[in-house]
Amino acid sequence: MSHEKLRTSRKWLFLSMGIYLVLFVVGLSFGASTLSIDRLIPVLFGQGTFKEEFILFSIRLPRILILTLAGAALAMAGAVLQSVTRNDLADPGIIGINSGAGVGITVFYLFAGSKIQHFNYVLPVIAFIGGLLTAICIYFFSFEKGKGIQPVKLVLIGVGFASALSGLMILMISSAERQDVAFISQWLAGSVWGTDWPFIVALFPWLMICIPIIYFKANVLNLLTLSEPTAIGLGVNINKERSILLVVAVALAAAAVSVTGRIGFIGLMGPHFAKRLVGPKHQSFLVITPFIGAILLVLADILAQIIFSSAAVPTGIVVAIIGAPYFLYLLRK
Amino acid sequence: MKVQIEGLSVGYEKQTIVREMSLQIAEGKITTIIGANGCGKSTLLKAITRVIPYQGGNVIIDGKSIAKMNTKALAKKLAILPQNPESAQGLLVQELVSYGRFPYQKGLGSLSKKDKEMIEWALEVTRLTEFCDEPVDSLSGGQRQRVWIAMALAQGTEMIFLDEPTTYLDMAHQLEVLELLERLNKDEGRTIVMVLHDVNQASRFSHEIIALTKGQLAGHGTPEQIMTPALLRKVFNIDAVIGNDPRTKKPICITYDLIKGEERDEEMADDFARTLVGSM
C-alpha cells in the first residue's frame, strides 16, 4: 500500500472513531427524559441521583451499546455479502436473510410468548438458524452449474424471499394473541427492543468470533470480488471460502437483528461509504466499516428520538427513510 | 514442468464439448490453441487450468493429476489470464498486481520482501511502473490488459495460460501484448499457452499450434505443419491461400473464401441461429 493511501486510511479511521464518540455522548444525553451532557461524568462516577443513574445505566448505555454492536455487525455482514456475491446491492435485509431470521424468531416467540426476554442467549441462535436456511435457499436458487453464483439473480431471488418471508411472518401471527402481534409488528418495523445488558452479553460473542474471521479472510475477499476464473487461478478454493464467509455474514446479521428487529440498509450503506472513503481493498475499508455501521445506526436512533419524539418511531423506519433513497440511487447508477 | 493431457473429456451437463483428447504441451514453448467458435478452445484451456472440472480422462502436471492437487499449490505452478476479466473498480494498479502474490501469502496478507520484489519486477516488465498509483479503471484497454498480465506474472509461475489476450485491443496493442509474451518466453523461459482467433498471429508467435474442431484435435504441430489449406479447411471451413510473411518467413493466410455448397453451410446457419437466440 502506498504511503499516501495508508495516511488516508488512518485519517478516516480516526475521524470515524471521533464521530462515533461524539454520537455516543449525544446519544447518552438524548431521550424522553433529559440527562444533560455536563451531568454525564458525575453520573458515570456514581455521583448522580437514583433517577439519573437508572436512566444512564439501565436505559441509555445498554441501548447505545446494542445499537453499536448491531450496526457494526450489519455493516460487516453487508460488506462480506457484497464481496462474496460480487453484487454491490447485496445487504442482509434486501436479500432476505433478516426476514429469514425473523421467521425463526416468530416461530420461537409463538412458543415462548412473553417469556422471550429470558431466552436472550437462545435468540441469536434461533435467528441464525432461520437466516442460514434462507441463505442456503437463496444460494441454491441463484447458483448455475458451471457458472457459479449469478449476482443479479441472487438479488432478485433474495428480494423475493424477503417479501415472501415477511408475508409468512404475518400469516403466522394472524392467529396469535393481540400482544404477540404487537411484538412481531414492532420487530418487523425494526424497533430496537432488546436493550438490556443480557442482550449485550448475548450479542457480543458473535461479533468477537465472526469479525476476526472476516479480517483474517481479507485477502480471499479481495480475490472473490474479481471474476471467478481469476480467483480460481490465484488459488482460491472458491466453494469452501464462499461457504465459510456466507455463514459468517449470516451469523452476524441474524444475531444483530434478533435483538434489534428487522433493520435493513445498514449493511448496504456501511461498506459503501467505507469503500468510497478509502478504496475497495478489504484490508483498508473493512477497518472503518464497523464504525460507519455503528455511526449510522446510532445516528438513526438519535434522529428517531429528536424528530419523532412524540410518536416513538422505530429506529428501523428511520434507517429505511435514509437507506431506501440511497438504494434507488444505486439502482439507477 | 510437463503438462500431459490424457483422454480428456469436458462438458456442461449432458453436452460434451471436448471429447477424449490426448496431447502434450511443450515445455518452455509458446503454444496456441486455434479453432472455430464453439469448438472447445476456451473449454480446453479452462479444464487444463482447473477453472472447470472435467468429466473423463486426466490432466497431469509434473506427474500428478490436477484434480487431486491443492488449488493453492497449483497456483504456484500456473497462472491464468481469463477472457476479458472485469476491472476491479477503484483498485490501484499496484494493488491489483499485488493480488498475484496470494498463493504465497498467509493470514492477513502483508507483503514480504520477495512479494514486493516480484510485484516491482512484474510492473517493470509490463512497463507499468509509472502507472502503479493510478486506478486500473482510468487506463486504456491495452494498458489494462498489461495490468492483468502483470498480475499473472507476479504469481511467479513457470506456465501462463491466456484466453484470447488480444480481444478488444487495436492492432498495435495486440502486437504489444504478444511481443511481451514472446519476450517472457525467450528471456525467462516461461511456458505460454494461449487461445487466439487470428491464425496469422498464432503462426507468427507460436512454436506449436493446437487446432481443434468440434471438440477434437484436428492437428498439433509447428505453424508450418498446421497452416495448410487442407487443415484450415477442416478447422474453419475456409478455402485459404497460404503464403509466407515477407518479414518473419512464417506461413500466413493471405486471403480466404468460405466454402460453399456443402452440408456445413446449413450447420453454420443453425449455429448462427443458436448464437442469436443465446445472446438474447
Automatic annotation (TrEMBL), chain A:
Any Pfam family hit: FecCD
GO cellular component, one term: plasma membrane
InterPro entries per record: ABC_BtuC-like (IPR037294), ABC_transptr_permease_BtuC (IPR000522)
GO biological process: siderophore-iron import into cell
Membrane topology: Multi-pass membrane protein
Coiled-coil ranges (or none): none
Compartments where located: Cell membrane
Transmembrane feature ranges: 12-37, 57-81, 93-112, 118-142, 154-176, 196-215, 244-265, 285-307, 313-331
Sequence similarity: Belongs to the binding-protein-dependent transport system permease family. FecCD subfamily.
Protein name per its UniProtKB record: Iron compound ABC transporter, permease protein
Organism: Caldibacillus thermoamylovorans
UniProtKB/TrEMBL annotation, chain B:
Annotated CDD domains: ABC_Iron-Siderophores_B12_Hemin (cd03214)
UniProt-listed SMART domains: AAA
Sample GO molecular function, one term: ATP hydrolysis activity
EC number per UniProt: 3.6.3.34
InterPro entries cross-referenced by the UniProt entry: AAA+_ATPase, ABC_transporter-like_ATP-bd, ABC_transporter-like_CS, P-loop_NTPase, Siderophore_ABC-ATPase
Cellular component aspect of the GO annotation: plasma membrane
Cited PROSITE patterns: ABC_TRANSPORTER_1 (PS00211), ABC_TRANSPORTER_2 (PS50893)
Keyword Cytoplasm attributed: no
Main location: membrane
Superkingdom of the organism of origin: Bacteria
Record keywords: ATP-binding, Cell membrane, Hydrolase, Ion transport, Iron, Iron transport, Membrane, Nucleotide-binding, Transport
Gene Ontology biological process terms, A to Z: iron ion transport
Pfam families attached to this UniProt entry: ABC_tran
Membrane topology qualifier: Peripheral membrane protein
Leader sequence segment: none
All residue ranges annotated as the ABC transporter domain in the record: 3-239
Name of the protein in question: Iron(3+)-hydroxamate import ATP-binding protein FhuC
